[in-house]
Specification:
By secondary structure, the protein is α/β, with parallel strands linked by helices. 33% of the residues lie in helices and 24% in strands. Helix 4 links the parallel strand 3 and strand 4. The protein is globular and about 40 Å long. The protein starts with a helix and ends in a 15-residue tail after the last strand.
């Protein structure tokens, strides 16, 4: 796994450095630096392999299924037996006596020390994005990031991740567009910072997000990967942002 050494030692430490005032969630939700690097590596390598399998016009759900399958293949190739990869995890509030579901998160990873605690996992939400596409880029925030901010996903966790499927290259000002939308919706504290990108990612950013009324801070890592083969040539969603 030497291919990721540079961003592990520089970008990842920069991204995960927390101030003394920042709450970090329950200890069972904590992750070692090496574990975070492993998750990022699996996500990026899985997305790179899935990109060769997607078809024009493919939507988020089938893309994500291909990504999860590719992640499982990479996991086997690397001989990783200390974690499991799953998806469409049904999130339940045990304190709610109604027959309701909080949500279903797209990709979930669990390490051995998290087994047995249904609330402990690494949650990844996946959304399509495109430079200049105000509709897709808005949904990345309002139907993706918002679920972490509300505590619907990863309640009380130290870390969450967003995987952005970029449908059109070059990347241009896409990250800046997402950053502007984040700051407008959640305030300047949600401003994104750059981190060294994985070799199979186009761009990676990180930022802090206040979660729920309790004020817990969750750190989100935003990973943008090339999924341009899934773009539909007849798409009419592109509009000035």
């Amino acid at each position: 796994m030497t291919r990721t050494s540079s961003w592990r030692t520089i970008g990842l430490r920069t991204a995960m450095r927390l101030s003394p005032e920042t709450p970090i969630g329950r200890p069972s939700f904590g992750l070692a630096e090496e574990e975070i690097a492993t998750v990022l590596d699996l996500l990026c390598r899985g997305a790179a392999e899935a990109r060769t399998l997607v078809s024009a016009g493919m939507l988020e759900v089938p893309i994500t299924i291909l990504v999860r399958k590719a992640m499982l293949r990479v996991k086997r190739q690397l001989g990783l037996t200390n974690l499991e990869v799953g998806g469409e995890l049904e999130l339940l509030d045990a304190n709610d006596e109604e027959a309701s579901v909080q949500g279903r998160i797209d990709i979930v990873l669990r390490f051995l020390h998290q087994f047995g605690d249904e609330e402990a996992y690494v949650g990844v939400e996946c959304k399509r994005v495109r430079p200049g596409d105000s509709s897709l880029n808005a949904r990345y925030v309002t139907q993706g990031v918002d679920r972490f901010a509300a505590g619907q996903y990863a309640a009380g966790h130290l870390l969450g991740m967003m995987l952005g499927y970029v449908l059109q290259l070059p990347l241009g000002a896409l990250a800046a567009d997402i950053d502007a939308r984040m700051r407008k919706r959640y305030g300047e504290a949600a401003k994104l910072g750059d981190m060294d990108a994985h070799v199979d990612a186009l761009s990676m950013q990180f930022g802090n997000l206040a979660q729920g009324a309790a004020g817990h801070i969750i750190r989100l890592i935003h990973i943008f990967v090339d999924m341009s083969p899934a773009s539909s040539a007849t798409s009419s969603t592109v509009a000035p942002s």
